[in-house]
Amino acid sequence: MKNKFALIALIFILFSSFSGSILATVTNKKSSLKESVSNLNARTKSLEKQVKLLQSQIDMAHPKTAKMQKIDEYEGDNKNKYYSPVEVYAHGPAVVTSPYFGVRRAAGDEYEDESKMLTTLSKINEDLVLLQLRKKIDNCAIKNNIEIPMRPIIALSGVLEGIIDYKQEYNKKNKLDVDLYEAQLDFIGETGPWVTSAIIVTYDKDKPNDDTRASNSKLRIARGFVTVGQLKKSPLYLTIGQIYAPFGRYSSNMATDPSTKLLGRFKDRMVILGCSKDSFNVQLYNFSGETKGVNNGSANSFLGHTGFHMGNNYKIEKFKIDIEGSIIGNIAETDGMQKIFKNNEAIHSRVWGIDGRAKVGYDPFAISAEYVGAARRFDSRDLMFNNAGAKPLALNVEGSVGFKIFGKPNNFSIGYGQTWQALALGLPKNTFFAEYDLAYFKCTLFAIEYRHDINYGWNDTATNVTSIDGRHKNTVTAKVYVYF
User: Fold this and answer.
1) Which pTM was predicted?
2) Residue 389 pairs with which residues in a beta bridge?
3) Tens of pLDDT along 94-146?
4) Which of 61, 78, 112 is the last residue of a domain?
5) Rounded distance, CA 239 to CA 237, Å?
6) CATH code, domain with 136
7) DSSP designation for 456
8) I want to staple 379 with a disulfide (CB 3.0 to 4.6 A). Which of 127, 197, 349, 403 is the partner?
9) Using alpha carbons only, what angle is made at residue 327 by residues 322 and 333, rounded to the nearest 5 degrees?
10) d(CA 139, CA 135)
């Protein structure tokens, strides 16, 4: 029995010694690991301090690089306004994409005078729009220490417009139509700080007599021009190419074309000398033209192919007013008038054209009015209304209010238009319209418009018009605009 107790005591002593040895070993290992972790943390903190010191030295030596590394911190609306686009513009690929360049004029620069909904963008002074855009980007780049690029850059953009309209014509016939109203691709090139160019490609939507509308969808260069100028260095600039003349503005909330645009706007190959300083801009231009004077008359003179435009705007907090005025030496050169004169460009007398526009806004309300037409009567042999020389004129007045529903921009507009002695041009005597616009998706706009036109009187006569088809026309137009 004693031997058994002795054996048990021996085993207990041996087990206790072995356990103590294992416990001591584990404790020593834990202590060593803790010490290693502590040393690693100390070394990491030391390395972090060295990296911060090195980064501060790099920032002091290269502040532009340091500033660019902070660009990614901008989120929300700001990233689409200045920093990220400027960084891509300055240091990204040579070919970039940007929404339809006319849209960008609504970014608060000096030349912005368009509807916030941008239902119909004015194509007047596109060269100045690009110069203002470049000035804004350069100012932002300098402010944020981003290097202004000297290499050539190409910006691609465009617009598509689909349309569904229902018309009750003057002759009471009804017509429902679905059409691709606009398809446009823009190539904007910046060769350097002083040279900007643009090629605007569209498709021909006109339907000839011997072809179908779809098979005639051929691409064509609608406009192309080169501008030499840099508004940060000089207010003067020079543009040469095929472009809409700076005669009138014709910006409108209407989905359809106002009579002022149909009467006064025109495109030609011309040279433009412009000046833009802050909110003031002026353009003097000369073009080849189409009309010629009978027996080498005044239509052949230098003034007959010359025009002048001037505009300015004033802004006090939410209140803003834009005022513009234009003159042209021969209004017979406009696209609307050329429908009459294209078969016989020889006219007996040259008639000056005038345009005036004013827009008053108090956010979110805006009222605009534009008046365009001939300064005096045409020779009755050139253009006649009621057996006398015609003096075609057009007026367009619009009011609009912008608001948001569920955070989406909406706009409601009403307007009135009137013409005088413009029966030969196919323009209505009076126009009433109402339109509702919704921008539900980014760079996408939905619009619906009701338009009521009143024709000239039954007894009115004009060049190439011997009878009136009817007195009233109604049109309902639905459009979707996609900008890219």
Assistant:
1) 0.76
2) 384
3) 666 666 554 444 333 333 444 455 555 678 888 888 888 888 777 777 777 76
4) 61
5) 7
6) 2.40.160.10
7) P
8) 349
9) 125
10) 6
